[in-house]
Amino acid sequence: MEVNPPKQEHLLALKVMRLTKPTLFTNIPVTCEEKDLPGDLFNQLMRDDPSTVNGAEILMLGEMLTLPQNFGNIFLGETFSSYISVHNDSNQVVKDILVKADLQTSSQRLNLSASNAAVAELKPDCCIDDVIHHEVKEIGTHILVCAVSYTTQSGEKMYFRKFFKFQVLKPLDVKTKFYNAESDLSSVTDEVFLEAQIQNITTSPMFMEKVSLEPSIMYNVAELNSVNQAGECVTTFGSRAYLQPMDTRQYLYCLKPKKEFAEKAGIIKGVTVIGKLDIVWKTNLGERGRLQTSQLQRMAPGYGDVRLSLEAIPDTVNLEEPFHITCKITNCRSSVSSSIKMGLLPTHNTHRHIPVICSYWIFVECNEESHALHLNWAVAHTEHFKF
Fold first, then answer.
1. C-alpha pair distances (Å), 178 with each of 60, 253, 263, 296
2. C-alpha dihedral (363, 368, 369, 374), degrees to nearest 10
3. Residue 312 phi/psi, 5° resolution?
4. How distant, in Å, are the alpha carbons of 25, 41, 106, 129, 378 from that of 100?
5. Going by C-beta distance under 8 Å and a sequence separation of 6 or more, which residues neighbour residue 206?
6. What percent of the chain has pLDDT over 70?
7. What is the CB neighbour count within 10 angstroms for residue 214?
8. Rounded CA gap, 371 and 387, in Å?
9. Is the pLDDT of residue 122 over 70?
10. What φ, ψ does residue 359 adopt, rounded to 5°?
């Protein structure tokens, strides 16, 4: 009959504790009126309670702080801090102690130990302490693996591990929408408006310290989340930048293509990279978190091989007087040059007092850059185009 050997006791003890900010101690006030049976007993007990505020005993929040009683929640973008202690519980001197801490995620294994060098010896009732930090960048299951190896006085090498599993949750829900600027003079308003909707999906309020857009090399960005009042820049969200649980806040940004890219429409065709959002917030007692989105991509509107846009056109014109219109032709193709045929089609109108504009066709050779054409005609009679 096989007998399982007894489990060997280790000379060292490993303790791991997560380091978090304390919370304000909450007290449940119990009071009654003096004419009730307890009289002033409850009020006197609350006045004698050291956790209550003197003169405001019926308030739930006191002046004391309490340490976390459990592991708590860890959110994406926060810094995970943990205290690791190895204590010698025996009466022997232990040698060659090596403490290693790894963090296993769904995609990688990270070494969090500050030093990989072994401690020469550890006397009885002495300990080895270490504090590890890691900025959490993945959601899902994380496993903290703490391994300890040492050598006893008899020369026997010992080794043991402990596993600490925790979940990393998503703190914010970020949604983005793109809007193309619509204007009759579209050639000078190639702006892209980005709307970012940020929702707090945690159970505690957040202080939004910074929400900014880092544009790509093709764009310049302007934030539209503040207004100028009496020479001062005031945010549109008010003086308090708190985001309550399940609340949503909208941020707006305007992106304009840089001059060297705006003149070459073929570069910004198809899918273009806009940039990424950088979000920084604080929670209870100043715990900071930071998130950066992946590169935001936008499908640029398709203009075909050639894009014709209006640069300038008068609001009103006089009858039978010539007026000027400035057009812009942009070659959106990747080839060096294109032959473009341009003209005005006849306009058929049921109103007799509006004349018919005859067709005029011109041929233009244009390269990758844009060409501006100045057109001149009258309402009641036709005039030749002038360049």
1. 46, 10, 22, 10
2. 10
3. -155, 140
4. 35, 55, 20, 12, 85
5. 171, 200, 242, 243, 281, 282, 283
6. 72
7. 13
8. 11
9. yes
10. -85, 140
Please report which confidence band the pLDDT of residue 300 belongs to, taking 50, 70 and 90 as the band edges.
low
What's the gap between Cα 357 and its chain centre? 55
Q: Positive or negative CA dihedral for 360, 365, 368, 374?
A: negative
- C-alpha distance from residue 330 to each of 67, 188, 258, 308, 336 (Å): 66, 13, 16, 6, 12
| Sequence-separated (6 or more) residues with CB below 8 Å from residue 350 | none
Helix spans in the chain (H): 41-48, 259-262
- State mean pLDDT over 263-290: 78
87 vs 65: CA distance, rounded Å: 28
Q: What is the DSSP string of 63-121?
A: EEEE--SS---EETTBEEEEEEEEEE-SSS-EEEEEEEEEEE-SS-EEE--S--PPEEE
The pair of three-digit structure tokens given for residue 308, joined into one six-digit string: 């014709």
Residue positions counted in the chain = 387
The residue type found at 271 is V
CA 217 to chain CA centroid, nearest Å: 19
End-to-end alpha-carbon separation of the chain, Å? 107
